[in-house]
Amino acid sequence: MESKQSDQAKEEIFRLFDEKPTSGLGFLDAERSLPPPPPPCLEVLASEVSPSAKYTVEPVNIGGLTLFKGRVSTQEVFTLTNSDLVPGKYEGGLKLWEGSLDLITTLSSEMQDGRLSFTGKRVLELGCGHGLPGIFACLKGASLVHFQDFNSEVLQYLTIPNVAVNIEKNSQCLGPDVEEGPVNTETRFFSGDWGEVHHVLSCVCSNEYNIRSRPQLDQAAGYDVILMAETVYSISALPNLYKLIKKCLSYPHGVVYMAAKKYYFGVGGGSRRFLALVEKDGAFVSSLVAEVADGSSNVREVWKLHLK
Description:
By secondary structure, the chain is an alpha/beta fold. It contains seven helices and ten strands.
């Protein structure tokens, strides 16, 4: 009996989301009511940053590199329509999740070991929130970085100003293979559900079902690197996320870096559930790059995927 109660207590500690799926994303729904329809997919211009946002920053040190974590008034954003955000329960892109920092640490290690270079690369960060992994790619010489989040409000209130302040403050903190000077990466911002957002992304290269015929396609299409942190928590969202990756990744050398918890208690998602989907499809090879088990949270992992 005591063991059973202990297990239940642990589940409550790790319970980030509710069991009830909503709009294919699996976020908490405090009222247990039907979710609103997903917002339309669109590009959010950098000039559309909210002028009323109370935006402040605080430094975050990641392996010797100082990035800046933006903070906004959550109450302002919670009042907006078509938002999946739930006060006190799910703050979505307004929260800096652990996986974002794990991902940056891993990317830095991959670069140091000569397994990754962002120089001249096209990068897409899915479920970006603060956008720190994408910002890291900007500072390391990517030619373009596109940021995607479900909510346009998160992009307007947080991502866009966060990208701007990090590039401004870190323009001289470039990688050894990047010439000194200002960061001139093309940055664009896209909002929408993973099942539809490919309609507005600019580097989609093919229908995902034709992935093995891509040698006959324009090999300049697609994103060279896709980054995502804490995106695989909801079982219902995994198929659309995977299809989007297949539509967007460049052939034949595109690579995906995914940071996630091994399991997300309460919704059944996690890195292993997503990888089961990947393995069943058979188009990708996956490898575990890093594992973080600090005893204070669920086991976290960073995986790399590339096309067979």
